[in-house]
Amino acid sequence: MLGYLLLNQGETQAAIDLWDEAISIFEKNEDEAGIVQSYSGLMCGYFNLGLYDESIDFGVKGLRLAQESGDDQLLLLTLGNIAFNYYALEKYEEAKEAVKLIRCLKEPVVEGNKVSLDQLEAGICLVDNNLEEAKYLIDRAYERVLNLNHPALLSETLRMRGKVYYQLGDDKVYEESFEESIRLAQEGNFLEYLAQTYYEWGKIELAKDNKLRGELFLLEADHYVKRLGSPLLSVNICRALIEFYKSLNIFELALHYYEKCSEVERKAHLKRSELWEKRINREKYISEAKIFKSLYDELETISHIGRSFTETLSLEKLIIHVHEQLSKMMDTTVLAITEVNEEKNCLDYLIYLESGNRLNSGYVSLDDENSLGVYCIKQKENLIINNLDEEYELYQLKKDETILFQKGIKSILCCPLIIRNEVKGYITVQSYEINSYTQRDLTKLSVLASYIIIALENAKLYRQTAYLARYDGLTSLYNRVEALKKGEKLYRLAKHKNPMSVIMIDIDHFKLINDTYGHQIGDQVIQLFSNLLKTKRNRDTVIGRYGGEEFIIFLNHRNIDQACEFAEQLREELKELSFRFNQLGIKEVTASLGVHEYRFNEDLLDDGIYAADQAMYHSKTNGRDQVTSYRRLILEKLAPSKVSEN
């Protein structure tokens, strides 16, 4: 009981140490029940740390002992924790099977176990959308737990009750249940329940489109999970925040939580390695047996690769690490990693190394029947070939049309890169020698392929998120935040040294374009104008999308006359794009521009933007399709006290 209390309060390592010590005592006293209960606790402890292999290991040991003892209650305890872990991992079918096995046993003697089982089964019914059964089970669990002096279990039951009643459409019970669950968890300092409850509550509020509450609850969950140290829950919370901020186009915050998510996963890999090392060192007889020593060495290599993957989100560094580590394990005379390009119906090479030299191999069509990689992907099979000359017919390859023969390749390993049951590419190692690989090599490459695809997907998502944190998704210009950052940098460089100007631009009648032709055509207008702006970019020019149909340009080394000339040229070039707009059904697209030159003894960056914006407004209200200089043309009307004529 103390071990589970420590878990709830975030003292996971202390709980594990306690159960480890308990096992030693129980083994000396030949207390099978105590050993099984300790194994079950260790299964939960290691699960909390994100060490799922170790968790399964202890679960299997506990299950085996419980079955041998013939004690249904011990078996029920172990199966119950296994079912809860499956549920937490969203492996609902496996959780359902475990519950079915439990229901075949005698009913739990301990009342708290009855509550936990009803609660778990209610959650599974929710997944199956069996709301009537979910309500029956959670109501029964709630009635039972009210008769127990068990605030932690009551808090957990109320959380599930809130989820069920939300699905039933009863907002009153939903709100009351979550509020009471939080109150009990706070009183008992149950960090796990606080983090989990705020996380579940936040997700529901976002689903209800209550963005402010949803964000607040997810941030509360993130606060508590820091103290808890549960990788699975921490990753889930981070991913929810990533998706939330991406939906609002707040990519800087999305990037922050993506980096945090990667750091959590990296630490989990490190923890796994440390624990494996402790277990190996504790069991000295393993290192004395050569076969186990060999397996341990391989485990260490794979673990090292896993750590290296999680330590970098750079695709280039990731590929270098893969090559370095694979070279220690097998012949990598040729190493290639590909990625499926669905839009072009081909495989793009992320890397093609031959004898350590990087070659440009372009792409392979997914319709190429003479590509072994295409065969591997379509069949979703791991391939091992140790004499291509003798085995090529097994894969329907034509010898005179297959590039592998031209290169003199003899031995090949090839594994599809699969994530969420979807093939994303393949990895292959190849040799000029026959019989270069064993079945064990294929197994190692297959295991590593599962790490590699996760790492590749992480790197890809990171690049996308990092890109959108700086660039506008529609135009590929700097977004507002990044444009202002770059503008501030130019401002600091230029201050008191050389002239600098700013231009604000607004596409004329853009709302009318959207209302008349639709937002899709409006987006194309924005893109065409942005393409024109991109031709003006250089080291002294920062261009960004300010928002909607507005754009901003910072010009270093340009005074007011040069900036106005630049703006006029841009205005004219936009009009020259009429033929492109005609293809969209639009007669003409024009823009209003405002220009201001910074006076560094008076203007901050924002002051200049304000001045240019006022000048742009003057252009719009005085006929549009023109350039206005703030100081020269509207000095007296807009800001006589702020700026004086040069």
Compact description:
With 646 residues, the protein is α+β, with helices and mostly antiparallel strands. It has three domains: 2-228 and 240-247, Alpha Horseshoe (Serine Threonine Protein Phosphatase 5, Tetratricopeptide repeat); 317-465, Beta-Lactamase (2-Layer Sandwich); 480-638, Reverse transcriptase/Diguanylate cyclase domain (Alpha-Beta Plaits, 2-Layer Sandwich), CATH 3.30.70.
Task: Note down, in words, how this protein is organized.
The structure is a single chain. With 646 residues, the chain is of the alpha+beta class. 64% of the residues lie in helices and 12% in strands. It has 29 helices and twelve strands. The strands form two sheets. Strands 1, 2, 3, 4, 5, 6 and 7 form a seven-stranded antiparallel beta sheet that branches. Helix 14 runs antiparallel to helix 21. The chain is globular, with a radius of gyration of 32 Å. The N and C termini lie far apart (81 Å). Residues 282-293 and 638-646 have low confidence and may be disordered.
Note the topology.
Blueprint: H1 2-8, H2 12-28, H3 32-48, H4 52-69, H5 72-88, H6 92-104, H7 111-127, H8 131-146, H9 151-168, H10 171-188, H11 191-207, H12 211-228, H13 231-247, H14 251-282, H15 284-288, H16 290-310, H17 315-327, E1 334-341, E2 346-354, E3 357-358, E4 363-365, H18 372-379, E5 383-385, H19 388-391, H20 403-407, E6 411-419, E7 422-431, H21 439-468, H22 480-494, E8 500-507, H23 510-517, H24 519-534, E9 541-547, E10 550-556, H25 560-575, H26 578-582, E11 591-597, H27 605-621, E12 627-629, H28 630-633, H29 635-638
Parallel strand pairs: 11-12
Antiparallel strand pairs: 1-2, 1-7, 2-3, 2-4, 5-6, 6-7, 8-10, 8-11, 9-10
Helix pairs in contact: 1-2, 2-3, 3-4, 3-5, 4-5, 5-6, 5-7, 6-7, 7-8, 7-9, 8-9, 9-10, 9-11, 10-11, 11-12, 11-13, 12-13, 13-14, 14-16, 14-21, 16-17, 16-21, 17-21, 23-24
